[in-house]
Specification:
This protein has about 300 residues and is of the alpha/beta class. The chain contains twelve helices and eight strands.
Length: about 300
């Protein structure tokens, strides 16, 4: 496990290349251009953070905190603030409960996986199935995205690859019925973990949100306390648009954690900080590639170190 984690950290640093170039070069340029602290330093740093997709409010908050800390610690040189910036980012990203438990109190542990189409939602479900199976758990997949035929086909491929059963209905079936049948089958077969893949059609967002609420209700009736985890999958390359999408989901669902995918494809790593701060929902998993091992638990300090190293 330690070797796997070490290997992931190496890939994380390497695949954050675009974000590191954008964020770190900009930040270091500001620090190098200013010997002494002053308004111009903080104004430039603010601009760099906004360009890196930290979001206006988040960038303003970070810079204001740095102003206060510089004053209270009597820091006079810009270069001495870099470590303070890194620690502030670690603190921001550490807020909330980032842990993931896959043990249900009474019966199968149920995870509902939500997100817009194209975010990596179905792939995340498949990778989690492989990961949990590798940990020795029994796993079942539920194909509750019945409006996109490709989603069911993709999830079926993942079920075969991971060697886990899947519950699915015909195209266009009631997603809640699929979810209920999957919960029923998981309960009957004493499955440890049930992963439910759901639809993500934001253009009919009212219907979608009602559908997701219904899935939550019917699963809860079959398995008390379910779903135990509601993971919202976001594509990091969509930047602030992803944040807007996330707000729609968090209004309808009791999201317990975020999965941030495609971090290897974005040049604006600040979106990680922005999403965590603006939504107040902890990032639990991040993806930096196509492989199963490229989806790993999120660790704030590791991420900041990889970004700045």
């Amino acid at each position: 496990m330690a070797e796997e984690r070490q290997g992931f950290l190496g890939r994380l640093r390497e695949r954050l290349g675009k974000a590191r170039t954008s964020v770190i070069n900009g930040v270091k340029r500001v620090f190098a251009a200013h010997g002494a602290l002053g308004d111009s330093f903080f104004d430039e740093l603010e601009g760099v953070l906004i360009e890196a997709d930290f979001g206006v409010d988040t960038a303003l908050g970070i810079v204001e905190t740095m102003r206060q800390e510089a004053c209270s610690r009597r820091v006079e040189r810009a270069e001495d603030l870099l470590d303070i910036l890194k620690e502030d980012l670690v603190t921001l990203l550490s807020a909330g409960d980032h842990s993931l438990s896959w043990d249900g109190a009474d019966g199968p542990h149920v995870t509902l996986i939500a997100g817009v189409n194209g975010s990596g939602k179905t792939t995340t479900a498949g990778k989690l199935a492989s990961h949990l199976k590798g940990q020795g758990k029994t796993v079942m997949l539920g194909a509750a995205d019945t409006f996109r035929a490709a989603a069911v086909e993709q999830l079926t491929i993942w079920s075969e690859r991971a060697g886990v059963p899947i519950v699915k209905h015909q195209d266009g079936a009631d997603p809640a019925a699929v979810a209920f049948d999957a919960a029923d089958a998981a309960q009957a077969r004493r499955i440890d973990c049930l992963l439910l893949d759901t639809a993500g059609r934001l253009h009919t967002k009212v219907n979608l949100m009602e559908e997701l609420k219904k899935i939550q209700r019917v699963v809860g009736k079959r398995i008390p306390g379910a779903p135990h985890e509601v993971l919202l999958v976001l594509d990091a390359t969509t930047g602030q648009n992803g944040l807007q999408q996330a707000r729609i989901f968090t209004e309808a669902l009791q999201v317990t954690g975020l999965v941030l995918t495609k971090l290897d494809g974005t040049a604006k790593g600040g979106i990680v900080v922005s999403i965590q701060k603006e939504l107040g929902v902890p990032i639990k998993l991040i993806g930096v590639g196509e492989g199963v091992d490229d989806l790993q638990p999120f660790n704030a300090r590791e991420f900041v170190e990889a970004l700045f190293s």
